[in-house]
Amino acid sequence: MALISVDCRAAAPAAETFRVLTDLVNLPEAIPEILSITLLTDGPIGVGTRYTEERKMFGKSTEETFEVTAFEPPIDDGPGLFTVEADSCGMHMVAVHRVTPENDGSRIALEMTAEALPSAWMARIVSPIAGLLTGPSMRKMAKRDLERLAAAAEQV
């Protein structure tokens, strides 16, 4: 199981930071590497929402379909939780975002895991290189995404 853990501070309240993070339709405005997001389900964003994200990653265009598996907005300036999961290339990926109040702003933390799916034939091929998902390039990309989310939340 690969793990990336990054965080950054936003000079914006937790509720606003969470709103920007979960505004999937407008996420490409905050993170230029996200080329587009297509919602696959109707209604407001929440548990069960499915969407396809097209992103430029390491110089190539990739497309993944995600499902929201946790959606807990901050209440009374408490913490918020937003989790998405995807199965791709024989791997099950989970991205857990936590938004917590911090002094006069908030902190966004991201933990990403990737685990080989035992029944997938790709798992045998991908499993030995799963550790690359924790490499410096992936960590740098995740950190940059959080910093851009923070900057977008601060603009409001």
From TrEMBL:
InterPro entries, per the entry: Polyketide_cyclase/dehydratase, START-like_dom_sf
Gene3D superfamilies, per database record: 3.30.530.20
Name the source's superkingdom. Bacteria
Q: Which Pfam families match?
A: Polyketide_cyc2
Q: What is this protein called?
A: SRPBCC family protein
Q: Which organism is it from?
A: Alienimonas chondri
